[in-house]
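Suppose you are handed a protein chain with no further information: no name, no annotation, nothing but its sequence. What can you learn? This example shows the usual starting point.
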Amino acid sequence: MKFKALGAFAGLALLAACSSSPTTTASTGNGSGAESTAAAPGSEQDLVANVGDRVFFAFNQSSLSSDSDSTLSRQAAWLAKYPSVNVLVAGNADERGTETYNLALGERRADAARDYLVAQGVAATRIQTISYGKDCPVAAGNDSASYQQNRNAITSVQGFNPQNCH
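A reasonable first move is to predict its three-dimensional structure. Written in structure tokens, the prediction is:
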């Protein structure tokens, strides 16, 4: 008798799953903002899908490019829309260079992104920074494409760690 009840319940669950409409998925965080998302407004997923969460840097550089300025301007506007959201900006480097050098470079990259957001009107008290140096790569590999992806500053909603580092 128990198996019949369990089977009936499983059948109902299967029918319910089949009748629901598909959900929209979030983008990969490329910053285009062109994809729609079912993310909650003001969430990490909203930031990634509709604004872009990262900016990239040239080799051994911490200066912002025009692409970075565009992404950070969108982030500043998003933060203005959600004044209760605090963020963490994590600076990263590729694997080349010493641990000490890459930690300092990651810090300069995180600071550059933070300074841009503050200049756009975001309160400095809403932004924390951290440097992971070369310890938290987002792309595996020892090639120029991987190195480029790992030279970044990633903005995340406080309490969310996009890199699962430390």
